[in-house]
Design goal:
Blueprint lengths: L6 E3 L4 E5 L2 E4 H23 L4 H27 L1 H6 L14 H19 L3 H25 L14 E3 L9 E2 L2 H23 L7 H17 L17 H22 L12 H4 L1
Parallel strand pairs: 1-4
Antiparallel strand pairs: 2-3, 4-5
Helix pairs in contact: 1-2, 1-5, 2-4, 4-5, 5-6, 5-7, 6-7, 7-8
Keywords: Cell membrane, Membrane, Transferase, Transmembrane, Transmembrane helix
InterPro entries: Lgt
Family: Belongs to the Lgt family.
Length: 279
């Protein structure tokens, strides 16, 4: 095997540090996900008759839902025995450990609370938010690449990465699964944004959310076959934890798309609730 034929990857996860303060690529890209997402969502909301204030409020709900959901998802889905025995460790987010499936659940719950409190049509909110969530997911997976984590199996494909920071000797060429996911979710962002840009409020309610959930977690299901196990217990499992968690979300997405196909009804302008639903 000629390792010179592959792509060496030795990026330092830390950009710079000042005393005890460390700025890392993952944290920066995580922050960019919300900064860029807020700007795009503002454009969407204003174009449909909502205000920038609505975006400020929903962004706060999103941040809280994402962080809490992603952290609890990692601790409860992947290592519940350890974290339930050491609950204080759950709070140590800076040590790593966030799960996208947990983030999905956290976001869905946070947006349900937002919609109920602010009198929005829940599905209208989901249809718009998935556009920026897709962009955020692409940036966060780039953060995983910068950390040389969530790596793929050994391979001989010409675009294989040599993750030198893993300390493998000799360095093993591996699938850059972080890049696969980042590119796929970015393309999903482009598709969703294009559909919104072209049709806006004429879009059938639930279409964007259904496409997002179905496409995202179907790809996630299959790309997991190329990944190394995240925790030891996955070595004895037919499907890993990420795949098992993806299946119900795929089914939910397909169900929503089926309902959209049966009854393609657009939401009220600006995501307003119908009068009957306010009573």
């Amino acid at each position: 095997m000629n390792l010179l034929n592959y792509i060496p990857w030795n990026v330092d996860p830390e950009i710079f540090s000042i005393g005890p303060l460390s700025v890392r690529w993952y944290g920066l890209l995580f922050a960019f996900a919300f900064i860029f997402g807020q700007r795009i969502l503002t454009k969407i909301y204003v174009a449909e008759g909502r205000t920038e204030g609505d975006v400020d409020v929903i962004t706060l709900y999103m941040i809280i839902g994402t962080v809490i959901g992603a952290r609890l998802g990692h601790t409860l889905f992947y290592s519940p025995e350890y974290y339930l025995s050491n609950p204080i460790e759950i709070l140590k987010i800076w040590e790593g450990g966030l799960a996208s499936h947990g983030a999905t659940i956290g976001i869905l719950f946070a947006l349900w609370l937002f919609s109920r409190k602010q009198k929005f049509d829940y599905m209208w909110v989901l249809d718009r938010i998935v556009i920026v969530v897709a962009l955020g997911g692409a940036l966060i997976r780039l953060g995983n690449l910068m950390n040389s984590e969530i790596i793929g199996h050994q391979t001989t494909v010409p675009w294989a990465f040599l993750f030198e920071r893993l300390g493998e000797n000799p360095t093993v060429p591996r699938h850059p699964t972080q890049l696969y996911e980042s590119l796929s979710v970015f393309l999903l962002f482009v598709l969703l944004y294009w559909l919104w840009k072209k049709y806006k409020s004429a879009l059938p309610k639930g279409l964007l959310f259904g496409i997002f959930v179905t496409a995202l977690f179907t790809f996630r299901f299959f790309v997991e076959f190329l990944k190394e196990d995240q925790v030891e217990k996955e070595a004895t499992m037919v499907l890993n934890i990420g795949q098992i968690l993806s299946i119900p979300l795929i089914l939910i997405g397909l169900f929503i798309l089926f309902k959209v196909w049966q009854n393609p009804k657009p939401a009220l302008p600006g995501g307003r609730l119908e009068e009957s639903s306010k009573a």
